[in-house]
Amino acid sequence: MVECIAMSLEFIKQMNEYVIDATMTQSDEDILSTVGKYDAPGWDTIRAAHSIVIQAVIDSRQSRLEKKKSEFLAAKEHQKSALKLFSVNKTVPEMLADIVKAMQNKEKVPDGLLMAFREQGQNGSEDDIKDIWQSLVQLGLIEPSDDEH
Q1: What SS3 class is residue 14?
Q2: What confidence category does residue 149 fall into, taking pLDDT thresholds of 50, 70 and 90?
Q3: Three-state secondary structure call for residue 1
Q4: For the whole model, what pTM was predicted?
């Protein structure tokens, strides 16, 4: 039975290829002249099928967008809760050590970030250090669960 189905699918695929090849060699006028003839679908059927396909594509894109948006918001919420948890457990000197370590990683640090850090960090308070640390965690330059200290 499975062989019969597989052979039937292969047969249908091959026939479909023959139809495509034959259609590709016809002129536009020849193709358009067959619409509604020889049991070919009419314009109304073609338009209805086109509308169904377009709506299915729109629905699929919307569904994927909603799924990705939901995954993004969940990841962002997870990051926020992890950030709060680990920032509470880290001391300011540990945060400062994380910042220095992150800034020394030339491959990961975007251009201009070191300069921005220097400007923000001058005469910085503990709150400034915490803000910088959290910003670097959000950028992915510091792993908040890093407990090397």
Answers
A1: helix
A2: very low
A3: coil
A4: 0.40
